[in-house]
Amino acid sequence: MSQFGTRFFGHEWYRLRMTSSPLIIDNLQYANWSEKIFRQMHEGGVSAVHVTIAYHEQFRETVSNIEAWNRWFELYPELIFQGFTADDVKRAHSEGRTAIIFGFQNPSPMEDDIGLIEVLHRLGARFMQLSYNNQSLLATGCYEAEDPGITRFGKQAIAEMNRVGMVIDMSHSAERSTLEAIEISRRPIAITHANPHVWHPALRNKSHAVLSALTKAGGMLGFSLYPHHLKDGTDCTLESFCQAVADAASAYGAENLGIGSDLCQDQPDSVVEWMRNGRWTKVLDYGEGSASNAGFPDQPEWFSCNLHFGNISEGLSKIGFSSSEVDGIMGGNWLTFYEHAFQPEGA
């Protein structure tokens, strides 16, 4: 047993590790998708990626984005396919492909119609943030001055998401809303891409109170590699990042941690405007505090694409994690979470 706690060796992910290469899951990317990136996923041994298919898109626009993904699945079946369940991730791992799991960074695809949650789940959506940076119909984003918490509609949406098997994601949500979502949800929720605020006080990173409540309820934190969320930004060292993971493991348990890189590979800077502005403002919203953040920052040199997950594995091993803990953080913990979170209640 290492200093970070025990592992549950009966888990399916551990049995997979004993018979094949370690499983890698990245629980958030928003890349400029291409054959090059799909091949890098394959070469990097990435078995599943949770991809953002909507920021501010409404239902019909989201369906158009799904159509684009269907075309990619048709063109590159040897590399990628749509993942709906944990079993699909296991299949991708055994076949050397990548399961693509859909998610939203805003509840806009469901518009104001709670019935669309089930429809979107049937189309493959497995994660939905209750808010992006602003106030939504469901919850408050982290850039709002006041946080009144989960709305009446939000409580009903959480119940419906629990019922169908869609994970509540509070990565961009404000403190009170996040704590209330953890309490209201009948099932564990996720913060798919953020880091501890104590390591780097970015507005988007999460407090000890949030991370403690999240993990005590069985939820998952995906560590972000997006430079604005990293101590020292682009210059963040691998050692600093891995130490932050180690500190979180000591505080919250290694079994509740994974990777949600927030990798935006090959995206033009113009895409940042859509991410931050959507259609809600005519004024450029720079986000993260200043106009210097108008474009995408450079990734740290040790993690710039899907070929570099091995650097993180090696760094975690050097910082003191056991091999089973490393395998859990790199993908096994997310797989265990998927096994329960993607199933309808009672299944």
State the CATH architecture: Alpha-Beta Barrel
Query: How many beta-strand runs?
Result: 9
Q: Whole-number average pLDDT?
A: 92
The helix-and-strand class reads alpha/beta
Order of helices and strands: HEHEHEHEHEHEHEHEHEHHH
- Overall shape: it is globular
How helical, in percent, are the residues?
25-40%
CATH top level is Alpha Beta
- CATH superfamily (homologous) name: Metal-dependent hydrolases
Low-confidence stretches: 1-11, 13-19
Number of alpha- plus pi-helical segments: 12
First-residue to last-residue Cα separation = 34 Å
Task: Describe this entry's structure for a reader.
- The protein is an alpha/beta fold.
- It has one domain (27-341): TIM Barrel.
- It is built from 12 helices and 9 strands.
- It has helices spanning 12-19, 35-43, 59-75, 86-95, 116-122, 152-164, 175-184, 208-216, 238-252, 270-277, 309-319, 323-341, and strands spanning 25-29, 48-54, 80-82, 98-104, 125-129, 167-169, 190-191, 220-223, 257-259.
- Strands 1, 2, 3, 4, 5 and 6 form a 6-stranded parallel β-sheet that branches.
- Helix 5 (116-122) links the parallel strand 4 and strand 5 (125-129).
- Helix 1 packs across helix 12 (323-341), helix 9 crosses helix 11 and helix 11 (309-319) packs across helix 12 (323-341).
- It starts with 11 loop residues before the first helix and ends in a 6-residue tail after the last helix.
